[in-house]
Every structure is written in structure tokens, then in C-alpha cells.
Please model this.
Amino acid sequence: MGRKLLLEHINVPGINTFDVYRQKGGYRAVEKALKMTPDEVVEEVKKSGLRGRGGAGFPTGMKWSFLAKPEGVPRYLVCNADESEPGTFKDRYLMTHIPHALIEGMIVSSFALGANTSYIYVRGEMMPQVRILERAIAEAKNAGYLGKNILGSGYDLELYVQPGGGAYICGEETALLESLEGKRGNPRIKPPFPAIAGLYGCPTVVNNVESIAATVPIINDGGEEYAKIGIGRSTGTKLISASGNLVRPGVYEIELGLPVEEFIYSDEYCGGIANGKRLKATVAGGSSVPVLPANLTLKLANGDPRLMSYEGLSEGGFVTGTMMGSGGFIAFDEDQCMVRNTWNFARFYSHESCGQCSPCREGTGWMEKILRKIEFGEGKMSDIDLLVDVAKKIEGNTICPLGDAAAWPVASAIRHFRDEFEWHVKEPVKCLETNYGLANYAQPIAKTEVTT
Model:
């Protein structure tokens, strides 16, 4: 059984309260960190090899070390709790059941960065989690772990929860900062990076919920001990949101380096594919990463087992690999339609594009309309190559990664399941007669004209 660092006490009654969390060793990391210097805390995070758990996978300690420290200018820590990636729900789970793990991590991280005011930016649809976090903050403050002169250390910290407006684009750190400042959530052009000019033009670090919570076991046990867990540069544990056609979907904490096959089929984790079906494909890191067929999900191109790690999932590049991303693991059984799935993702990205960049604004809508044509038996063979061409023209040509996130699923689905796209074009009547077609919709959808 894999080691649990974040979810070890998840089933303890009352673990969402300060008293029970404290009984289980909570806030020891704060007490330990306040006896260290901020630079020593940063060094422990560097030693741990912790990489950003929100999707980018950038080394957290290195990101912290980039923070500018001009005299007389405040610094900020902002927690990105705008968990918007389809297929990802592990941060919401953590905030719901163990909110004090995040609060403790915020205190440790804020101290390391020299921030006296920090924010948790929560997706607008997660109002129950906002209230849970506000209660946890009040409990921590009443116990002397927030506010002025924390535990007599001379360190002050005020922590605030800010709900967003429910925009996917605000998961991008600079769009999040714009929203936090009360503006429309459009991504900023970089440089300057937030570490130099972030919130209110001041040095700012933006980290994901899981990344910040992971600093607690790192400080408690030491960075070197944390680095012993995992494999290679993928150290520690990772929360995985498992959904789709699985026997046991849910949130799992795994040691990085676990074989993908074991994660899908072992009784300790997902228990296999539901209803005795066969695995057809997976999206391993949330909707923005390339889809993989079953054979490349379980094995590398050379036949070796594929591992649940940053390097293991990306092995082979986008030709035969994918990305760890945010850990939103979606499994599709043999009956699922990859055209419909791709269209569904494209609808989402078309809707969520902020419209600031022309390739994304126009390209996401174009891809969605073409995919809709193919799905409902109105497509042409040339539409398939047109989709690939549009995806290429979006990728790498936008201010933020949303354009890439929209393009990669489309390009990879055609790369691995082109025959299914062609079947939709060649057999439009059969397509509509199967459960892949209009049968699953309550009302017929009007035809859409697309100039190709």
C-alpha cells in the first residue's frame, strides 16, 4: 500500500475541525517553520523536489527563490484554488475534508516568502468550500496561528478567501491576479512575471492547493525524506482525480512512479473498468492533455510499463505520450465515442476562451463547429485534416496556455483514433443510429453551417 501524506487522516471523524486536526499532529509544521529562517524553509522545499501540482510541474522551491524582495514593498502568496480543469476535483476534495491542511500550508509558505497578507482564490461555484475555509481560518486565528505575532514569533499573517466568478481562464495565474484585483480575468503578457510584478504590482507567488498543502509533510519530515518517495525527478505523492468508466472513481493519493496499469486495475485503487468492459482510452491529466489509446496508456512504445509520474506519462512526447497535468485521470471504455468526447472538450474551451488572442478566440470556435458537424453526420473527409491544421495554428500562438489546452486534445484524438473520425464521415446514418449519435440528446440539434 502506498504511503499517504495528505490523505492519511481523511476518514477520521471531525478532521475538518481545528481540534481534531491538531490532535492528529496538525500545525506542527507551523511551529517548526517559525523556529527556522524563511531561507531555511525555502531550502527544505527545494530539497524535497516538490513540483507544482496544478499542471505545470515546475519545481516549487525554485519558483519561490525567484521572488523579488525589494525593500519596503509587500510580497504576496496567492493560492490558486480555481480548480476548473474538467476531470479534476482533488483540490475541492482536500478543501472540503481537510481544510486545515491548506491553512497550515499557507502559513508555512507565507512565512517562507515573507508575505504578511495571503489569499486563497476559490472557484466561484465552490461556495461551500469558501465557507469551510473561512471557518477553518477563524479557528486557526482563535488558536493564535494567524494574525499578529503568531505564537510569539513576531511574524504576522492575515489570510483571506476570495471567490472568483467561475471562469476557467482564471486558473491561469495572471488572469487570476487580474480577477483578484477586481478586473476582468484576462491573462497578462509576460514578462514581467508575477514573482517581479504580480498582485497590485508587487512580488507574488501563485501556487496550487495541493502544492501548498504538500509543504506541511515536507517541513515535518524534512525535504530529503520527502524526496525519497517517488521516482527520479517526480518526488513525493500526488492526488489523482479518477473518473469515467471505472469501478471505483474517486480521489486517490499515489506515490509517483506507480504503474498506470496498477492504478487502473488494482483493488487498492480504481478496481478496473466498470461493467466488465475493456479500456479504450484515457485522459491522464485533465481535459487539456493529449488523449492516449489503451495500449499506450498501459505501456510505452517500447513495451515497458508506463508509470504515473511526470516523466513516465510524457515519455514519447505527444506522438506516443501525454502529460501528468493536474492529475485528472479520465478512463473511457470500449463503448465511448472519441469524436463526441473531443467535441465535448472543444465546446468547453470555445465557451471558456477569454477572446483576447485571435488564434484562440477564432480557432476554438472553429474546431467546435467542425467537430459538431462530424459528430452529427454532416462532416467531410477534408474536415479532419482541417481540424489538425487549425489546432496547429492555435498551438503556441496565444498569451496563455488555454489555446494549447484546446488544441492538444483535438490533435491527439485524430492522431490515435482517425479511423473513428472517418467512420463518422463515411457512415453518417449508422453514426446517428448508434448510441454515438443523437439518441442521447433530448432534443434534435439544428444543423450548423461551417465554411471549410
Remarks:
- The first helix runs from residue 18 to 23.
